[in-house]
Amino acid sequence: MTCTPNIEGISPLTRKEVFDLRHEVAGWSLADGRLTRRFALKSFQECLDFIGEIAGLAAQQGHFPDIAITEQRYVEIAWYSYACGGLTLNDFIMAAKINSRAFTRSGMQI
What we know:
The chain is built from three helices and four strands, in the order H-E-E-H-E-E-H. By secondary structure, it is an alpha+beta fold. The protein has a domain at 29-102: Gyrase A, domain 2, CATH 3.30.1360.20. It has a four-stranded antiparallel sheet, with helices on one face. The longest helix is centred in the middle third of the chain and has 18 residues, at 44-61. The protein is globular and about 40 Å long. The protein starts with 14 loop residues before the first helix and ends in an 8-residue tail after the last helix.
């Protein structure tokens, strides 16, 4: 699946839709209305490389996450569609795409 461009004005997903889709993205959880996940890597440089991959994917799909590096080896990602004021299908599509990339990365702890 690919993200839908120009989602401004689209209604966010309902609680039931979010609950149903949550099971499609293993390892992700809901926190403060956002879809979040923390990835453990071996080094700060690997965090930067992983973020670069995510940034490339986000640019390709036109949908961007909030990203943080903590403790020099964890990458925290949060999805939220600000233009819609909640979670959309795009957020779950991107979480699934990151999951498929993360499973193929060496050194990634999931």
